[in-house]
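Form P-L/3: holo structure prediction, ligand dinuclear copper ion.
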Amino acid sequence: MHIHKLEKIWLAIGISMLFVFLGVLGVSAFAMGVKPPSEHHHRIDPAKVTETAPFDKLGLFKTGEKEYEAVMTAFTFGYAPDKMEVPVGATIKFVVTSQDVVHGFEIPGTNVNMMIVPGEISQVTHTFTKPGEYLILCNEYCGGAHEYMKTTIIVK
Ligand code: CUA
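OUTPUT (holo model):
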């Protein structure tokens, strides 16, 4: 079969584009693979969350004068620990991971809004200067009872 010269050129361009595309894919996969671990995205095995520090001991821990660390897990459909209470002015460092799927971690009225990805540890720090009941809500759709996935922090 005779292939017109113009068709040959287009064929060559098509093949080169394919290789450029594959090259870009390869380079980005490589770049992601060698990305240095950032402080906010430690890797963790989601199947072994309950036996991996710090998640082998969930809860609210006092780390200083009015400073706390809240080690928490998100799961379908809730958070552990379920309820926490801190004094007014407390600064809480939330350290959170997921035991199953992607969840949200939002405290309305604050700047706290994280995506909780299985296999990653997400951290955010917030100071609660006003007393009240603060809801922690899931804002990533995660299944049937997604809209009921929440817990409370009592500041008093
Ligand atoms: Cu968890 Cu929506």
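COMMENT: Residues 77, 103-104, 138, 140-142, 146, 149 surround dinuclear copper ion (CB under 6 Å).
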